[in-house]
Amino acid sequence: MQRLNATDIKYVKGVGPKRAALLSSELGIKSVGDLLRHFPAHYIDRTRMYAISSFSGEMPAVQVRGRFVSFAIQGEGAKSRLTGLFSDGTATMEVVWFRQIKKLKELYATMTDYVLFGKPTSFCGRWSMVHPEVEPPSDMHGEGSLRPVYPLTEKLRNQGVNSRVIHTMIRTVVDRIALGGVTDSMPPDILRRLGLPPLSTALRDIHCPSSPSCADMARARMKFDELFYLQLDILQYTRRRKLSVGGMRFPHIGHYFNTFYKECMPFELTGAQKRVIKEIRADMGSGRQMNRLLQGDVGSGKTLVALLCMLIALDNSTQACMMAPTEILAAQHYETISRLVAPIGINVKMLTGSTPASQRAVIHRQLEDGSLHILIGTHAVIEDNVVFRNLGFTVIDEQHRFGVAQRARIWKKNTVPPHILVMTATPIPRTLAMTVYGDLDVSVIDELPPGRKPVTTMLRFDDHRIDVYKGMGRELKAGRQAYIVYPLIKENEKVDMRSLEEGYEFVRDNFPSYRVAFVHGRMKPAEKDHQMELFATHQADILVATTVIEVGVNVPNASVMIIENAERFGLSQLHQLRGRVGRGADQSYCILMTKQNISADTRKRLQVMTSTTDGFLVAEADLKMRGPGDLEGTLQSGLAVNLKIASLASDGRLVELARNAASDILDNDPFLEKPEHVAMRREYDRMYQRASDWSRIS
Ligand code: ADP
Ligand code: MG
């Protein structure tokens, strides 16, 4: 493979300098190796011909066999196009070209058989194909039954480089390497264990498969390679960090933990909470620094887990701090925690951007002399001027607002970096978590406290609004509270503001005997807090809001969540919003309002919400429908992922296999120094382009 990676693409038969330059600028293909790794996006089953009379709206690209009846050039200048009437005996369709018109008109003849590949589209009841691939049936020999379709750019197509041309180039190379062979960087025992084909077979079959199953095997192998090297990258990074960075050892469970556990526990821990606390304890006792992600659905009781772990830190003569993304959340944590620990004499204080200077001075002093045990706050707690005497444990709540940069700042808060627990209610499927938060260990609370009734979720159209609001009225009458949420998305702020304000007026007009609070993201923080406070203390019955309430607010008396324009929210976001209700013992309701005519896809998406309350299922569905999107982009570990064929969303099983294989390799050859791993090391360096950068520590 090394030789192929070093061979310029222009030496491949049929390429030459001009096409080589084009391939390089358009697709980044420079070497023969790059060309071989330009994998087909999918395949067309060449054994199957479609009849024009059987076309339907949702067809992918298909092939049709028939003849052109006539050609015509229509329009003028830049707007001109060539149309051909094409008949396969069952019906006719229009074939349209916007480019190379003159040349194509010369090239194609009437009364000659052609096979066309393209995606049928329907316009005013007539079928047409735009820029299909056209070829005489006789050209179809020598390929398997599956015709690969390669990712291309517009510019390449304009220059006559279509899928078929790419395939011909690749086939030349594949035929050659079949003779010479390529070095496989993957040890044969791994391949054998997983039943994956050798590299040379996979490269041949992915481009020139003789059957669908053989294409699948080849794709699995190439996906595995990508994922394997990604995992290798993440694991070596994590291991290096663990090896080089020591941690505080917390061997004791002492006074604070024990007294609290015996005397102040508000309820019995769930099995999942107990298990997670054990995992965290083991980390903190190991002598290595903990970086652990705690996932737990909304309402699963992460706060109590965090508190118990903070008490362990206190028992080992260190301080603890907890960070939340907003002032409201920080205040809520502060209140919950200071109330819970009041009987055992722990000094807890809150620090946010709006803490007055005088109080701030007290906090700074007490942090430095060690008399302040637990500090709760916003980003303010990690500012440089906040100095702890001995910070042993940090909790970060609702992790998605805190990146690796903030974590790195915490590492530096002490000579020995404190243990870090990152808590998130955004459930991420395990395989994705392993990759996206590759340097974090993961614990999961997969059980809700007993006695919770699942929220009843309904999808309702605009014309049911009256009924929906009547339902809300019944709950209010029973003394419960309700949220009404409007989307507020930046580009549309004006429109959204109007709908939010109209909603507010509608509610005030229709529910005159109830008190209505009103919050949105553009309010001053103090005003926002005031409004939230009104709702939290039941001085308001209805909260009309934007998604500022999404994260963490706890109002157990609220039993109704109405989400307007629900189609504009992502599933995970809807799930977070829904998590605001169902926190008490009574039945709660979440109503997703949408306009009348939503697409089939949108309906399917929203039906995920009505069919399950399990955050992991919602997240998984979200991932399948939208792909990992943001998550992949904001890799917490700061490691770049460049997956061309594998998908973290849909190749979960392979991610896990790749992880295990990479881990085994590093176990017995941590630096890939053994002679049998030379090719692997080279491939890794090529993919991650940082040869000899193994000492990198963030
Ligand atoms: P989240 O995981 O969303 O942060 P919280 O920690 O806010 O959840 O807990 C949600 C609610 O459940 C709180 O009111 C909390 O007091 C309660 N809770 C937590 N653990 C338990 C438990 N083991 N049994 C009963 N209620 C619990
Ligand atoms: Mg919480």
TrEMBL record:
> What are the protein's GO molecular function terms?
3'-5' DNA helicase activity; ATP binding; ATP hydrolysis activity; DNA binding
Q: Which GO terms describe its biological process?
A: DNA recombination; DNA repair
Q: Which SUPFAM superfamilies match?
A: Nucleic acid-binding proteins, P-loop containing nucleoside triphosphate hydrolases
What keywords are annotated for this sequence in UniProt? ATP-binding, DNA damage, DNA recombination, DNA repair, DNA-binding, Helicase, Hydrolase, Isomerase, Nucleotide-binding
Where does the Helicase ATP-binding domain lie?
A: 283-445
**Annotated Helicase C-terminal domain residues:** 460-629
Query: Which InterPro entries does the protein's record reference?
Result: ATP-dep_DNA_helicase_RecG, DEAD/DEAH_box_helicase_dom, Helicase_ATP-bd, Helicase_C-like, NA-bd_OB-fold, P-loop_NTPase, RecG/Mfd, RecG_dom3_C
Superkingdom of origin organism: Bacteria
Catalyses:
ATP + H2O = ADP + phosphate + H(+); Couples ATP hydrolysis with the unwinding of duplex DNA by translocating in the 3'-5' direction
EC number, UniProt record: 5.6.2.4
Which EC main class describes this enzyme?
isomerase
Family annotation (SMART domains): DEXDc, HELICc
Family, according to the entry, reads as follows: Belongs to the helicase family. RecG subfamily.
Q: What does this protein do?
A: Plays a critical role in recombination and DNA repair. Helps process Holliday junction intermediates to mature products by catalyzing branch migration. Has replication fork regression activity, unwinds stalled or blocked replication forks to make a HJ that can be resolved. Has a DNA unwinding activity characteristic of a DNA helicase with 3'-5' polarity.
**Stated name of the protein:** ATP-dependent DNA helicase RecG
